[in-house]
Amino acid sequence: MDDDAPDEALADIKGRQIGGWGVAQIAVGTGLTVYAMWVGILQPGFRKVPLKLQVPYIPASKTQVQNVMTLLRGRKGNLVDLGSGDGRIVLEAHRHGFNPAVGYELNPWLISLARIHAWRLGYHGKVAYLREDLWKVDLTKCKNITVFLAPSVLSLLQEKLHAELPDGALVVAGRFPFPDWEPCRIEGHGVDRAWAYNMQAQKQRLLGKVSNI
Ligand SMILES: C[S@@+](CC[C@H](N)C(=O)[O-])C[C@H]1O[C@@H](n2cnc3c(N)ncnc32)[C@H](O)[C@@H]1O
After folding, report:
1. pLDDT per residue over 188-200, tens digit each?
2. How far apart are CA 24 and CA 22, in angstroms?
3. Is the pLDDT of residue 1 over 60?
4. pTM value?
5. Are 200 and 167 in contact (CB under 8 A)?
6. Which of 14, 141, 144, 205 is the most buried (most CB within 10 A)?
7. Could you report the per-residue pLDDT of 22-59, keeping only the tens digit for each?
8. Which ligand 1 atom is the nearest neighbour of the CA of 153?
């Protein structure tokens, strides 16, 4: 056996320079891996959703979830999280007495993860995670709605919520506020901030604006 062989091989590798072609190969390889992860794991189910409406998965932090629950204090009835990710807001809502607590989510991996979390914590059958496009679900009977989405979609979502939600509904938005609505309460600071909107007040504001024209 040649005991020096591994050392020689190592010295040989160390001595080699990575040229421009090598750098290009690494860059292309890394790019393809990231793209494959994006398409295969993070964004399946989004093929039919226009690019500008696709919102990536960024889970709410513990503080963000707490702020949402603080804004929902005193409320009862059903709750819907639009784009429910791994289901953390729905679970917490169920713990706070909201019934039924439902999450709509397009990514099947996240739906499975949410169901596993619920099962592990003993909430199997008590919360629901449905694979639905939030733009297509009927919200006419929703009383409490939570939304952790991107600023690019909030303007359009405002219109849907305005058209469908009953007067008594309360909408809580995390991370980013709705562009044209006036919140009735705000909780937290910086990225943890959450805004609560009373639907009746938004509808009255719009009526006031129209009658002033
Ligand atoms: C920023 S994450 C928030 C996840 C969760 N609500 C939370 O706060 O932890 C947004 C989620 O919305 C989902 N989503 C984006 N567009 C959607 C659509 N059209 N229908 C259903 N879910 C959607 C994404 O897959 C992602 O999981």
Report:
1. 999 999 999 999 9
2. 5
3. no
4. 0.81
5. yes
6. 144
7. 788 787 777 767 666 665 555 666 667 777 777 889 99
8. 16
More confident residue, 70 or 34: 70
| Residues whose CB is less than 8 angstroms from the CB of residue 90 and which lie 6 or more positions away in sequence, other chains included | 79, 81, 84, 101, 102, 103, 114, 127, 128, 129
125: left (phi over 0), alpha (psi -120 to 50) or beta: left
Give the residue among 64, 87, 91, 32 at the shortest CA–CA distance from 173: 64
* pLDDT of the residue at 102: 98
Alpha-carbon 127 to chain mean position: 17
Classified by CATH at the fold level, domain 62-212 comes out as Rossmann fold (3.40.50)
Ligand 1 pocket mutation, candidates 52, 57, 79, criterion most atoms within 8 A of CB: 57
Give the residue-averaged pLDDT of 71-96. Answer: 98
CB-count burial class (<10 Å; 0-12, 13-18, 19+) for 189: exposed
Q: Which residues contact 80 (CB under 8 A, 6 or more apart)?
A: 102, 103, 104, 137, 139, 142, 144, 145, 146
- Site to substitute for ligand 1 among 106, 132, 191, most atoms within 8 A of C-beta: 106
- Whose CA is closest to atom 14 on ligand 1? 83
Show the DSSP H helices in 80-130 as ranges.
88-95, 108-120
Q: Which residue reads 């010295």 in tokens?
A: 11
Query: Does residue 83 contact residue 105 with C-beta atoms inside 8 Å?
Result: yes
Domain extent listing, the chain = 5-42, 62-212
